[in-house]
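Continuing the batch. This is chain 6 of the set; chains 1 through 5 are on the previous pages. Same settings as before, nothing changed between runs. Recording input and output for traceability.
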Amino acid sequence: MEENKTNGRDEIYSAKVKAGKRTYFFDVKSTRSNDYYLTITESKKRFKEDGFTYEKHKIFLYKEDFNKFMEALTNTVNHVKQELLPDVDFDQFDQIHASHDHHQEEAEAATPVAKATGSDSELKWD
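Output for chain 6:
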């Protein structure tokens, strides 16, 4: 666990999900008044002539919306899995992504570091 002070907010916990050219970050942060919220960031790697940049989109999720968010997400994913794609073995994607992520990490380790830029689109769940 690494603490990071940004704009008076402490980062409490962070989890990362790599998905091809996208990476999702799930970060728990605290406010100055010791309250907690979650940020979900989608980061997409974009290639340019002189290297690459990261395009970022961020969602802020507050504690009063956690249950509604999880219920809607779970219901939506289950609908796709059970009603729209019942014959798909979704566990296969875990194995495919694990292999792909390993190869991507090796490639990134061999690539020189480039400057990352991007903008955040902030959404608040009501």
